[in-house]
Amino acid sequence: MSPSLAWLLLVISGITDVAWALATKKSAGFTEPLWAGVSLVLLVIFIALLTKALTVLPLGTAYAVWTGIGAVGSLAAGIVLFGESTDAVRLTFAAVTILGVVGLKVSS
């Protein structure tokens, strides 16, 4: 697999991780069977994609990028879908997270 394909799989895995977090929230502690099932399917998909990408990519950088996508993506989804806080401190730390992930990617 080429590094470009591995990065693409990693990004798709990160986006799937955000979808998993949303489905897990909608499952209400796994009391909603449909959302619990969706959550489990998304979990398998994002782990499979992450595993495949890590066969080519450097672990530290790839995992940081994947975690950043999940963290910032989940924060954004929470704001848009659930009306979570857009407090300046939260947004500042999200920006710091993005800056750190970009720095790791550029320096590797």
Question: Could you walk me through the main structural features you see in this protein, from its secondary elements to its overall organization?
Answer:
- The chain is mainly alpha-helical and about 110 residues long.
- The chain has one domain (about 5-105).
- The chain contains 4 helices and no strands.
- The protein has helices at about 5-25, 35-55, 60-80, 90-105.
- The longest helix has 24 residues, at about 5-25.
- The radius of gyration is 15 Å and the shape is flat.
- The mean pLDDT is about 95.
Overview features:
4 helices, 108 residues, mainly alpha, flat
What is the alpha-carbon Rg in Å? 15 Å
Task: Tell me what portion of residues adopts beta-strand conformation.
Answer: under 5%
General shape: flat
Q: How many domain modules?
A: 1
Number of helices: 4
By secondary-structure content and strand pairing, the structural class works out as mainly alpha
**Strand element count:** 0
C-alpha termini separation: 19 Å
| Unreliable spans | none
Oligomer: single chain
Arithmetic mean of pLDDT: 94
Order of helices and strands: HHHH
Percent of residues in helices comes to over 70%
Largest sheet: none
Write the layout of secondary structure elements.
Elements: H1 3-26, H2 33-53, H3 59-82, H4 88-107
Helix pairs in contact: 1-2, 1-3, 3-4
Can I get a quick summary?
The protein is 82% helix and 0% strand.
